Amino acid sequence: MVTRDTAWEPGTPCWVDLGTDVAKAKVFYSALFGWQIEEGDPQFGGYANCFVDGRPVAGLGPLQEGQETGWVTYLSTTDLDATLEKVTAAGGKVFVPPMEIGEMGAMAIAADSTCATFGLWRSGIHTGMRLANEVGAVTWNEHLSTDYDKAKQFYADVLGYSYQEVGDDGFNYATIVTTNPEWPVGGIGGNTDKSGWTTYFQVSDADAAVAKVQELGGKLVSGPTDSPHGRNAVVTDDQGAEFVVIAVPSQQ
């Protein structure tokens, strides 16, 4: 379990949120993960923070015009403008320019050079996830790409990432390092037909979580399968947003 009450180190996945029908999503995710979900503040468009043990772990916001439902991974930065300049210089695009969210902080939405969407967050009083690697919270963020080398170069140029290769023949995968090689902040891989960031939520029992997803109107995409890091499955919620549930070995 990781708890944190200060801003995350630059480049670290620090927050996830979902563009969705918020009322429906509250029912689904509170039943699946046991989240306590606040009433969204009208001044922020009804955006609602989700909590585990009183600590924020994720957000739910209404879909904007033309937006498809999906979980967005936000990467921490101390300077939005400078980071976005690097995004465009490295071949990415800015979809939502810097936006101040009151005293909470500031955000932007961009796409990398392989067309994967991600967010950037500059902390104010909202520092992002205050709980991770715990049941009901995010435990891993992963970028899968149509062009493995191009994606790695993009994030190295924009956020200073370095990588530790852990894949083998025919399987490209590396852990993402910011400053501490012993503390990877995520993963990056290839061998996919569509680039994107994926959110892993920790559960106590992957099979039971899949059954609950289906009971609530979601779908099983693949799995459950066993890995050295835990039993996991790719699922969607009842509105089509994809994510992964994983039971880490200590929770099996």
From TrEMBL:
This is VOC domain-containing protein. Coiled coil: none annotated. The lineage of its organism: Bacteria, Bacillati, Actinomycetota, Actinomycetes, Pseudonocardiales. InterPro entries: Anthracycline_SecMetBiosynth (IPR052164), Glyas_Bleomycin-R_OHBP_Dase (IPR029068), Glyas_Fos-R_dOase_dom (IPR004360), VOC_core (IPR037523). It comes from Actinokineospora auranticolor. Residues 11-128, 137-248 form the VOC domain. Pfam families: Glyoxalase. It comes from the Bacteria.
